[in-house]
Amino acid sequence: MFSIFGVPAPLLFGQLLLGIINGAFYAMLSLGLAIIFGMLNIINFAHGAFFMMGAFAAWMLLSYAGIGYWPALILSPIIVGIIGVILEKTLISRLYKLDHLYGLLLTFGLALVIEGVFRNAYGSSGLPYRIPPVLAGATNLGFMFLPNYRAWVVGAALFVCLATWAIIEKTSLGATLRAATENAPLVQAFGVNVPRLITLTFGGGIALAALAGVLAAPIYSVNPNMGSNFINTVFAVVVIGGMGSIMGSIVTGFALGIVEGLTKVFYPPGSATVVFVIMVIILLVRPRGLFGKAA
Q1: What is the pLDDT of residue 46?
Q2: Pick from 64, 175, 228, 239: most CB atoms within 10 A?
Q3: Please, which residues have CB within 8 angstroms of residue 294's CB and are 6 or more apart in sequence?
Q4: CB 238 within 8 A of CB 209
Q5: How far is CA 18 from CA 24, 101, 120, 261, 277, in A?
Q6: What is the pLDDT of residues 61-79, one digit of tens each?
Q7: Could you give the CA distance from residue 203 to residue 196 in angstroms, rounded to a whole number?
């Protein structure tokens, strides 16, 4: 068994893999946050709760309807996205012309309510969700065993993130979304239903969080606290990458996941704070974030 910098290779690569997996979830969650903030100027503190709802939706589909993992990858984001659309139409749409603080307080309250409902219904101990048989087992890479499901999660997250970036940055739909953010009255004058576009954008951002929840369900136990365990780090990712920056969220999410994983190897006590230390440094040196645009 060889070592790298005095660390056994299996331990180093194992923590690196864990960091990449966490980074995949950081990227997907921060991507949804960046879309909602960049297009709607709403700081959605309930994003972690929608991530949790996606995992619970997959668990309920399997437990109550016998619908397995693969259909749940499509159905769960749709279900949770519809819930997000309803909340946007009834509550969040009233706050667009107000200060960001009101949206933050509202979504923080929504997060507490959603988590409380699921905690009362299912308790705080995790509920298992099995890995689909086709992705069970691991592949021997010589220096470590790579679990097949974790490899799938990283690949799927990377594909979803890049596809979302391409849609927003390289298509006419994305151009319309960006234009509606800059000058909604002008875009509406060209016949675009801007309120509907905003609602669908919010629902899409929520659906991304729910999709991440389905991917996370077999790795982490499905429990009401799974979203709150991620959300603080995800907000740090968004700040470091640049508020509203799509590519910044993707790159920073994966990078910080890797940094966090390596910190657990070389300096375990710092693994819980390294992301926030980096955030403070970035805010001091470049307040708009690594990929953020100047005001």
Answers
A1: 93
A2: 239
A3: 288
A4: no
A5: 10, 34, 31, 6, 20
A6: 999 999 999 999 999 999 9
A7: 10
DSSP 8-state assignment for residue 130: P
Distance CA 122, CA 71 (A): 23
Instruction: Tell me the residue length of the chain.
Output: 295
* Stretch (H or E) spanning 232: helix 228-241
Cα gap 237→142, rounded to integer Å: 33
For the chain, the average pLDDT equals 89
Report phi then psi at 145, rounded to 5.
-100, 125
Q: Tell me the CATH number for domain 8-122+145-285.
A: 1.10.3470
Instruction: Output DSSP code: residue 291.
Output: S
- 24, 231 contact by CB (below 8 A): no
**Residues near 126 by beta carbon (within 8 Å), at least 6 away in sequence:** 220, 221, 222, 223
Domain ranges, ordered by start, for the chain: 8-122+145-285
- What span, in angstroms and rounded, lies between the C-alpha atoms of 221 and 248? 29
